C-alpha cells in the first residue's frame, strides 16, 4: 500500500518529549511548489504524533490548532512533541515540525476528559449526502502535486465557486508499515478544504494560501471518507477565510477554519 511518509527514527528524551524523524514520499508533494509538502498530509502525520503521545483511555483530542510558519520542505523532516500543560481533566500538547533547519508548523492540541453525555447530546450541523450518492468529481485535478493526485473526490452537482460539498478519500497509509487510524486518515485531508470551492481559479492570477488550520471536534471521526461542506470568503483588504463543517459517513463531527492571505501572482 502506498504511504505519504516513511519513519526513519524515533527518540525519547529525558524531559519526556519525543522526536520522530521522517522522510516524505511523492504522495505528500504540495500544490503550490514541487519542493514542498502539502499541508493536508503534513497535518495527518503531526496528528499521528499527537495521537500516540502519552495516550489515555479517558481522554481524547478536542481541538487542534496548527500555525504554518512557511514553506513545508519536502524530504527529510522531524516532529518533536511535548507536554505543555498536564492535568487530570485537560491536557495541552504541542508538536513542532522542522525541515531544512527551520520550523514549518507548530501544532497544539487540547486533550479533554471524556464522559457519557448521550442524555444531553444535540447538534445543529445537518447531515449531508453520502459519497456513494454523489458523482465522481475530477475538479481537483487542476491542482498539481502528488498529494492531489492521491485523492479520490466526489461532489454535489450544486457545488460552485465559494460554496459546496465535496467528499475525499485516498488509498494511502500515513506512514509506511504503520496502521493508520481513522482519526489520522481524516485529519490528513482536512486542509484540502481550501482548494475544493475556490472563489478564484488557481490559474486566474491570485494565490490564496492559508496561514493556519484550526480543527474542532465534537466527535472523533470514523471511516475512510471525509466530507467537507465548505464556504470560502474573501475580504476587501487581502485577507480571506475558508470554513468547513466536517463529516464522516455517520454525520457531522466538527468544524475547521483557515485564514487566507490573498496574493496577486
From TrEMBL:
Transmembrane segments: none annotated. Residues 131-260 form the Acyl-CoA thioesterase-like C-terminal domain. Residues 30-111 form the Acyl-CoA thioesterase-like N-terminal HotDog domain. InterPro entries: ACOT8-like_C, Acyl-CoA_hotdog, TesB_ACOT8-like_N. It holds the Pfam family 4HBT_3C. This is Thioesterase. It comes from Acinetobacter tandoii DSM 14970 = CIP 107469. The lineage of its organism: Bacteria, Pseudomonadati, Pseudomonadota, Gammaproteobacteria, Moraxellales.
